Amino acid sequence: MTDNSLGSLLRNATRLAREFEGARDAEPWTRCGHRLRESVIRPLAKIVQLEDGAPADAGQDQPDDSRAGGWGRLWSLTRAATEERVRRGASAPAELLEAVAALQEVSLVVAGDEAETRLAELRELQEGLEPGIEVATDGPYLVTNVSAVCDWLGRPITAGPQVALCRCGASELKPFCDGSHERVGFSGAKDPKRIPDQRDSYAGVNVTVLDNRGVCAHSGFCTDRLSTVFHVGQEPFVTPSGGRLDEIVQATRNCPSGALSFAIGGVEQRGTVDWVRGPAIEVSKDGPYRITGGIALSGQGGADSERNEGASLEHYSLCRCGHSQNKPFCSGMHWYAGFHDPVDDPDHEPTLFEWAGGLPALTRMTRLFYEKFVPEDPLIGPLFASMRPDHPIRVARWLGEVFGGPPAYSGNYGGYDRMISQHLGRQLREEQRARWVALMAKAAEQAGLPADPEFRAAFIAYLEWGSRIALENSQSGAKPPERMPVPRWWWVCNATPGARISALAEVQEPEKVTVTLPAEDEPVSFAAHVKPLFRAQDRNSMRFAFDLWAHEDVKTHSAEILARLSNGSMPCDGGWSPDWIAVFRRWVESDMPE
């Protein structure tokens, strides 16, 4: 018979869902009730039916909880389910793990100021469980005790110690599972037409590159960053003598799928390829989950997941779009399936941090700088001869925070005062400062950071500004002000990537705008009649000066705007019709109401 505690979990979840769905306030109660049914009650009911051999009983037991309010009972249910999951340990069924993951995720979302306290409590409850990822049959990835979950920019994603990650591609709560795999009939089976499991060897003068195309996720890290060795659409795919040994080693280590390795003297250097790092999961942009740190991967029930020949156990890529031919591993099908994450705000103006590619891109740049350029430079090499192994990461985190990313430097090392302390008394010279800037720009180029004029203008401006302050602070007798905040750098003069149309961009049809013009006797307002006349691209092209969607800005510059509309110089891709210009003129002449 089903364990009493498990049956109680099901009954209490059902009762709580009914309460939430019956609430007058539709949000967030109804949404939470729906989530309980799809991701908690459904899997729990499946366990009860399997273990009892009878339909699940969703009775009316009262929750054993003295705290008032539905959120309090939700938290009690979450704790009870987590304790049941811990009690069952490695033998806990996948359905229970899915239900616990959903309860933890929802409880943390609604916890408000108590989220950190509850997260710590959940982690303490589960601390005895081994970290790992269990691949549910035709269901989600069930992750246990992996706290480092981040997005493609390196920003942390709040996740409990039990997580269910979507792998069907249909969840509306990406990266978390919302039960959509049941609705869409997802299958986790491999495709018989997948690329064969075959490991190839490519011998060079000093090194042999090992590669299994059956593992490759086609992220392009090797071909994009070391095209002299790895070739797109060419045979042979690898020519090891086309690059330096250190570059090839770095390429194999950076391969997110684990398809690449290398050998020297006929001996594979797996210990070098699989470098030591903490367990982590990166949710890549519109692509797979990138797993690092040797997180154990198993099928449902705990059996080891089948791996292709030579595949890394330390780092691998798991399918997130639901279309891989080599499930659960990514085979690059997200490119062909048109898989995309939802866009939160299409009008969001990216920070420099986001545009650069986040912490992974900045770390790639600083590693190139300190590992490749600095050691061979006689002018600045001696300055960093005794730097710590994590120095490139520290600098990347500093730049990320300065460019609008999370406070990863302040949170880990101490903020502005800590950075200033690294330069005091160093007696830096101008030629060293200038070389630092030049080589950092070179590293940015080789690391593949954006090369558009807007980003490079802001990037180089900060390198010049920051390095000159460092030069000043390093001089004898310098007394920099204390307790200053970490600087925040932005686009130069609001020259953002969307502020202009590139001369090299593909010519597109003008954006079609549907507007309703006011009648002759109808009062003209900004919100109803003027703002809709300006397209998003018109707004972006003028944001360096003013905002065409802001009433006060347009009112202030109305005379200039009217003159340019009348002579056809605005917008730049074709003038307005006489009817549209007449509406704008009527608005100006009527004192420009909002």
Q: Could you describe the 3D structure shown?
A:
The protein has 594 residues and is of the alpha+beta class. It folds into four domains: 1-128, Up-down Bundle (Ferritin); 130-342, no CATH class; 354-494, Globins (Globin-like, Orthogonal Bundle), CATH 1.10.490.10; 499-594, no CATH class. The protein is 41% helix and 8% strand. α4 (94-110) runs antiparallel to α5 (115-126), α16 (430-446) packs antiparallel against α17 and α21 packs antiparallel against α22 (578-589). The model is unreliable at 53-68 (pLDDT under 50).
List keywords for this structure.
594 residues, Ferritin, Globin-like, 4 domains, 22 helices, 12 strands
How would you describe the shape?
globular
Helical element count?
22
Low-confidence stretches: 53-68
| Count of the domains | 4
Q: Give the helix proportion (percent range).
A: 40-55%
Mean pLDDT: 89
By DSSP, the count of extended strands is 12
- Computed Rg: 29 Å
Structural class: alpha+beta
Strand content: 5-15%
Concise description?
This protein has four domains: 1-128, Up-down Bundle (Ferritin), CATH 1.20.1260; 130-342, no CATH class; 354-494, Globins (Globin-like); 499-594, no CATH class. The protein is 41% helix and 8% strand.
Task: Describe how the helices and strands are arranged.
Blueprint lengths: L3 H18 L7 H24 L17 H19 L5 H17 L4 H12 L5 E4 L5 E4 L4 E3 L10 E4 L14 H5 L14 E5 L4 E5 L8 H5 L19 H10 L5 E5 L2 E2 L1 H4 L6 E4 L5 E4 L4 E3 L16 E3 L15 H4 L14 H5 L1 H16 L17 H12 L5 H6 L2 H6 L8 H17 L6 H21 L52 H5 L5 H7 L8 H6 L1 H10 L10 H12 L5
Parallel strand pairs: 1-11, 3-9
Antiparallel strand pairs: 1-2, 2-4, 5-6, 6-7, 7-8, 9-10, 10-12
Helix pairs in contact: 1-2, 1-3, 2-4, 3-4, 4-5, 12-13, 12-16, 16-17, 21-22
